[in-house]
Amino acid sequence: MTNATPRNPTNGSLKIMPLSKSDYDAWLSLWQSYLTFYESSLPLETTNATWHSLLDSNVSIYGFGAWQDDKLVGITHVVLHPNTWNSTECCYLEDLYVNQSVRGQGVGRALIEQVYEFARQQNCNRVYWTTQEGNTTARELYDTIATQTDMVQYRKNL
User: Fold this and answer.
1) What share of the chain is helix, strand, coil (3-state, %, to 5)?
2) Torsions phi, psi of 34, nearest 5?
3) 102: closest CA among 93, 92, 115, 111?
4) How far is CA 102 from the centre of its chain?
5) pTM for the model
6) 76 Cβ neighbours under 8 A, 6+ residues apart
7) Are 9 and 68 in contact (CB under 8 A)?
């Protein structure tokens, strides 16, 4: 993995690295904040299953963290999967969260750029993600680093 550093971090140096077993407590704090942001909650069993999947090399789910001054300030999770439109896998950026105290400092951009680099290394054909329509602050960033499609998501929970 390569470390990504934003061009103009305003508060110390930023390092982007894969999550490791020792990051659980810091990750859990950010994960819970992310769920709260989306007005969601998950059973601890699901949270722990997610954590174990992030660390399991036999599962195509990966996690990266952004550290600023040795503190975990952002996380992202990606899922690699085959698809019917290409002969190589896609990279789904499923979760992205940056601590509110460091938003606007390039952390989200650096995490996404790390996902792009990871997807290239894995020979993926694209990186894609969804967000809530009203998530305007994040969408301002997304509009500068990706192309919004005209696809509409439908869902039936089972």
Assistant:
1) 35, 25, 40
2) -60, -45
3) 111
4) 16
5) 0.89
6) 63, 64, 93, 95, 96, 97, 111, 112, 114, 115
7) yes
Task: Render the burial of 21-52: b for 16+ CB within 10 Å, e for the rest.
Answer: eebeebbeebbeebeeeeeeeeeeeebeebbe
**CA–CA separation, 114 vs 104, rounded Å?**
17
Query: Which of the four pLDDT bands, split at 50, 70 and 90, describes residue 60?
Result: very high
Q: How many residues does the chain have?
A: 158
Token pair recorded at residue 1: 């993995």
Instruction: Give the CA dihedral 53, 35, 44, 66, nearest 10 degrees.
Output: 50
The label of the residue with tokens 């810091």 reads: 26
Span 62-115, pLDDT tens digits: 999 999 999 999 999 999 999 999 999 999 999 999 999 999 999 999 999 999
H helices of 81-145, where? 107-121, 136-145
